[in-house]
Known about the structure:
- With 199 residues, this protein is an alpha+beta fold.
- Helices cover 27% and strands 27% of the residues.
- The chain is built from 5 helices and 9 strands.
- Helix 1 packs across helix 2 (65-73).
- The two termini are 18 Å apart.
Amino acid sequence: MTRGCRPGVARGRGAGQDVSVSAPGVSIEPLAVPDLDGARDGLVRLLRDCVHGGASLGFLAPLSVADAVRYWYGLGQDLRTGVRVLLVARSGPDARIVGSGQIEFAGKPNARHRAEISKVMVAPDHRGRGIATAIMEELEARARTGGIRLLYLDTSEGQGGARRLYERLGWSYAGGIPGFALDPDGTPARNAIFYKMLG
């Protein structure tokens, strides 16, 4: 990505790329495969804190350290090939990982105009500071740069979902399927499917 920083925006450390950040004191940066080892503990802590805090991310609580490690390292091939981009939000003097989000680009010839947003999460003690919005803005910007015209995602209609966030960001609700997935506490919940046309 070649966008410059907007005034008052932190410059990300990842791959020397500029990033847009609407959350003060937070930088958003891409994480590549070689960065996974150094970020492992922060990523594991983030995922476990979010799942244990009730976020619907495809896991049940309690989430073990081993399962969280397996998840993050399982992204390696997609990150290497560029099929997936993983962004992390860092905050504070220790650059703690306090949020993340992903975009997965479709590989089928008839689907290359679309991409899926997934695993947008913010540490429970950093919610309400605009971090999820900053992550979503950066994911959308990367999608536009990649020629993507349609983004989609799903979240839970239950307690662990983020429907209000996506509606506030201008995403359109497409519907949902009753009992589609279990929230972290094991409660069946309807999913909420959203999409956004980029151009």
